[in-house]
């Protein structure tokens, strides 16, 4: 749980990763001349603010790409949090002890840890630390087109509902990079949650990203491989076309996040709700 990796993309951009396997989350620290933005705060509770202070001495504000538990765990360490208001209920649920305990314990068991391990006081204590988050659900509202001027470096918010209704992407056009949270990922995008937007809305979000193609060349997701090329977005768009025209095959997968129906196209894998694949 304590795995932390820090690497830099350039002399004013860092990737702070925590966790392990496919669930490892990438948080991005982006520095301007006046202040810095940290995109997401991870799954594992760790001294993230302390880590940012070893890298830069400027004020750091947090932008959450969405409200899922693996992107918000260390929000409480920062004074200024921004999130899209459509993820308010998700943030509330995913900050709760019960929800975090259910998902984190399940992830550990999926790695083959036996049940008796959870009765050891040491393990219970460690798990408790990662599930009982200090209350910090206050945030400032993000909106589509919002600009953060960090000082000689401007970030723009693009509302990209799909994975969740409040999902956003962050465009750093000076460096030609797009930070997408869980909206485009190497191992697939989950769209089967009750709080996910419809496939049509997700496809509109992807088209919106495609419309600003000349402004970015690399995609930095919240998990797995980075950077991804812009062509990943095309594959996700075509994957939805395939579902809509009835030519997709799907595989049913039941996991601790619910039941999803997997559809693949090229590099893209979409996990859809049953209601979406009925058209197949
Ligand atoms: Zn997510
Ligand atoms: Zn995630």
Describe this structure in words.
This protein is globular. The protein has a seven-stranded mixed beta sheet with strand order 1-2-3-4-5-6-7, with no helix packed on it. A hairpin with a 6-residue loop joins strand 2 and strand 3. It contains seven helices and 17 strands. By secondary structure, it is an alpha/beta fold. Helix content is 25%, strand content 28%. Helix 3 crosses helix 4 and helix 5 packs antiparallel against helix 6. The termini are far apart. It folds into two domains: 227 residues, Ribonuclease Z/Hydroxyacylglutathione hydrolase-like (Metallo-beta-lactamase, Chain A), CATH 3.60.15.10; 36 residues, no CATH class. One zinc ion binds next to loops.
CATH topology (level 3) name of the largest domain: Metallo-beta-lactamase, Chain A
When the domains are counted, the total is 2
- The CATH architecture of the largest domain is 4-Layer Sandwich
How many beta strands in the DSSP annotation? 17
**Head-to-tail CA distance between termini:** 40 Å
Structural shape: globular
Query: Which cofactors or ions or other ligands sit in this model?
Result: zinc ion
- Count of alpha/pi helices: 7
CATH superfamily of the largest domain: Ribonuclease Z/Hydroxyacylglutathione hydrolase-like
Radius of gyration: 18 Å
Structural class: alpha/beta
User: What profile does the largest beta sheet have?
Assistant: 7 strands, mixed
On the 0 to 100 scale, the average pLDDT is 92
Q: What strand order characterises the main sheet?
A: 1-2-3-4-5-6-7
Pfam family, one: Lactamase_B
Domain Metallo-beta-lactamase: 24-223
Organism: Breznakia pachnodae
Protein name: Glyoxylase-like metal-dependent hydrolase (Beta-lactamase superfamily II)
């Amino acid at each position: 749980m304590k795995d932390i990796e820090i690497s830099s993309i350039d002399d004013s951009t860092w990737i702070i990763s925590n966790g392990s396997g496919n669930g490892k989350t990438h948080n991005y620290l982006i520095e301007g001349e006046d202040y810095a933005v940290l995109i997401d705060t991870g799954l594992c509770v760790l001294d993230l603010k302390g880590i940012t202070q070893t890298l830069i001495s400027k004020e750091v504000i947090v932008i959450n790409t969405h409200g899922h538990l693996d992107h918000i765990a260390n929000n409480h360490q920062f004074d200024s949090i921004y999130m899209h208001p459509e993820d308010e209920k998700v943030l509330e649920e995913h900050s709760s002890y019960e929800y975090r305990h259910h998902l984190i314990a399940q992830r550990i068991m999926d790695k083959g840890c036996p049940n008796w391990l959870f009765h050891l006081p040491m393990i219970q204590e460690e798990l408790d630390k990662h599930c009982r988050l200090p209350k910090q659900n206050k945030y400032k509202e993000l909106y589509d087109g919002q600009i953060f001027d960090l000082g000689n470096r401007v970030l723009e918010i693009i509302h990209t509902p799909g994975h969740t209704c409040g999902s956003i992407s962050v465009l750093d056009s000076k460096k030609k990079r797009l930070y997408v949270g869980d909206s485009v990922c190497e191992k697939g995008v989950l769209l089967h949650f009750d709080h996910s937007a419809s496939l049509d809305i997700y496809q509109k979000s992807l088209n919106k990203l495609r419309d600003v193609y000349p402004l970015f060349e690399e995609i930095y997701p919240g998990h797995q491989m980075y950077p991804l090329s812009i062509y990943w977005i095309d594959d996700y768009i075509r994957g939805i076309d395939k579902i809509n025209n009835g030519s997709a095959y799907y595989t049913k997968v039941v996991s601790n996040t619910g039941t999803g129906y997997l559809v693949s196209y090229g590099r893209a894998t979409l996990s859809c709700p049953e209601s979406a694949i009925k058209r197949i």
